[in-house]
Write a structure and sequence with these properties.
- With 275 residues, this protein is mostly helical.
- The protein has a domain at 134-271: Serine Threonine Protein Phosphatase 5, Tetratricopeptide repeat.
- Helix content is 54%, strand content 0%.
- The protein contains ten helices and no strands.
């Protein structure tokens, strides 16, 4: 009798265990010899047909032992541990979705109707200056004046002689000395501009030549020469716009200055200016 009670308790414990885990796992074993639903009385087991055997007791004990080793999940239900992945198994290939190119809009080529900028003619490098007209130079350096003016002109004549000999250092000293005696001596300024030009000091030559032009208004030949020296210095200093302005002034001061006229035409072609 006690043995039957123990077996019934064992079956009842199994029933409670299966009922608690059916929400997640479903039935594990086929229900067997369970009483029907409802308030019916449980019939007593028949010793001949319904009594559990020793094999049933061993299977039940193994099942209870296996269920007790399973860890419960957060809801209290027992969940089976996931199987470990097989390292020898080949990874599943990743299925790539075909990429289709987005439709592109064909760009129509249109001709460029913008006017191309005019091609500038290259300006040749301006070489050494030619000498001034000796007759006109002698007349300009012999003009009468006051003592200071005559002393400055004498120093300017010495500077011109040294410049013609190629002694630029001493020639510059004579012209500077003449300007210290007479600061308005345009001939000394013009000679100093030629010294700077001969030494390829383009900015100093252009500055001194334009300054000399302010004091040579009564001498058209030397006024035109001063503007011409400034124009050539500006060309070598890559300032064609300033050179063109000086070339215009050189032609205006002396229309017979052929060198200044040809230089102005060359600058007009370079700058794209209509004559």
């Amino acid at each position: 009798m006690s043995e039957n009670i123990a077996r019934a308790a064992l079956w009842f414990a199994l029933l409670l265990l299966l009922t608690s885990g059916c929400a997640t796992r479903g039935p594990v074993i086929t229900e067997r010899n369970l009483p029907p639903e409802g308030p019916q009385a449980t019939p007593a087991p028949s010793p001949e047909t319904d009594a559990p055997t020793a094999e049933d007791d061993a299977a039940l004990a193994a099942l209870l032992n296996r269920e007790s080793r399973k860890s419960p999940d957060k809801n209290g239900a027992h969940a089976e541990k996931p199987a470990k992945p097989d390292p020898s198994a080949a990874p599943a290939a990743i299925q790539e979705s075909p990429v289709t190119d987005a439709p592109t809009r064909e760009i129509e080529s249109r001709p460029d109707t913008r006017a191309a900028p005019p091609v500038r003619q290259a300006l040749p490098h301006q070489g050494p200056l030619g000498g001034a007209d000796p007759t006109l130079l002698g007349q300009a350096l012999a003009e009468p004046g006051g003592p200071r003016s005559r002393a400055a002109l004498a120093l300017t004549r010495e500077g011109r002689q040294l410049l013609s000999e190629g002694n630029f250092f001493l020639a510059q000293k004579r012209f500077e000395k003449a300007l210290s005696v007479d600061a308005s001596n345009g001939q000394a300024m013009l000679g100093l501009a030629e010294v700077h030009y001969a030494q390829e000091q383009w900015q100093q030559a252009a500055t001194m030549a334009t300054k000399a032009a302010l004091h040579l208004g009564k001498q058209p030949y030397f006024l035109s020469r001063a503007h011409l020296i400034a124009a050539r210095a500006f060309i070598n200093g890559e300032r064609p716009d300033a050179a063109y302005q000086q070339a215009q002034k050189a032609v205006a001061a002396d229309p017979e200055n052929e060198e200044a006229r040809l230089l102005r035409i060359s600058l007009e072609a370079h700058l794209g200016i209509s004559p």
